[in-house]
Design goal:
With 394 residues, the chain is an alpha/beta fold. The chain has two domains: 43-144, Orthogonal Bundle (Arc Repressor Mutant, subunit A); 147-393, Vaccinia Virus protein VP39 (Rossmann fold, 3-Layer(aba) Sandwich). The protein has helices spanning 12-15, 28-40, 43-51, 56-84, 87-91, 98-105, 109-121, 137-143, 146-161, 165-169, 177-181, 195-219, 237-245, 257-269, 306-319, 339-353, 361-370, and strands at residues 96-97, 125-127, 132-135, 227-231, 250-255, 276-280, 294-298, 325-330, 375-379, 388-393. A hairpin with a 4-residue loop joins β2 and β3 (132-135). α3 crosses α4 (56-84), α6 (98-105) crosses α7 and α12 (195-219) runs parallel beside α13.
Length: 394
Amino acid sequence: MPEVAQPRESDPAGLSRTGETGGMRPTLHDRWLEWRDRLLSSPRFQRWAATFPLTRPIARRRAAALFDLCGGFIYSQILLACVRLQLFEKLADAPQTVAQLAPRLALSEAQTYRLLEAAVALKLVQKRSAGSYGLGPHGAALLGNGGVAEMVAHHALLYEDLADPVALLRGEVGETRLQRFWAYAGNPAPEEVAPPGVTGYSDLMSASQAMIAKEVLNAYPLARHRCLMDVGGGQGTFLLAAARRWPQLHLRLFDLPAVAARAESAFAMAGLGARAAATGGDFHGDPLPGGADVISLLRIVHDHDDEAALALLRSVRMALPEGGRLLLAEPMSGAPGAEPAGAAYFGFYLLAMGSGRPRYPEELKALLAEAGFRRSRLVATDRPLLTRLLVAEA
């Protein structure tokens, strides 16, 4: 399995997060944190905090948060069961009782009740009158987002790869399930992947891309541009969304030949004609076509280690005219209110995939500068949990 690159030594943002102090004396803040850690780890203090009226609510919240960390895998499996059984779809029309749902789920009434009560605790389902159950706030939100359900089902592969996380960290695991699923990851000749090898991941990316497209296009209007090229654009979901908003825009897609063929079919079905075209190739070795004044990389850079990511950004810079723009959109480390999504979720997802790592915006800006972009800025998106957006000027 390829070794995942660590933060580059030339990058202060990356180095500052390695935990290396270089012999520097601890700051006053460091000493305060050390004192806090000793206090919080003291059983005596824990007992006191749990009973003292002013600290009791805080102690209970921290205890619940710690338990959620321990029970997180079980919670995710409950969600997976709900998705596989299409529970939310079955509750969408009207609330139902255990007796009504059991035969529809092919479960006994006892196990249907067990699943429903677990789903209630997770706010996926909500108790209604007369012993019935309806959608909860999380279940209703998920029902309106097919891409999320697709990802939940897909996570079964990730759970298998994380069965021994220490072995995964030490590189003691052979080929992972995610490496087999993402056929291009670590493949020395990704352009030779046959159409059956791209179907699964292309469909998954397409299902979830609509949410990302909305975030990016809301954050950065394309009215001033004439030609958009989406590199690694899959089946063209992002370009189709852009085409609907800006009819003046010409569209180009670059991806592996087997994927580009699927995009070409999608463009034809959408009636885009000569306005859209897809080119097959490998952006690791093939130059990108010119002619676009804006290029997008959606959830592409974090799939690659630093050397490959820098090479890709240089290739994008060469394909853009002076003053052209790059839209680099992906989940990033340190997103306010969504910190676990970057370093925790994507950190280990990409580890299992065998390539790439989540990066802080400062790290990506450093790579962009090294690739030859004049300046870059972080543009706010509505939901940074899904994606953040960097706009770089060539």
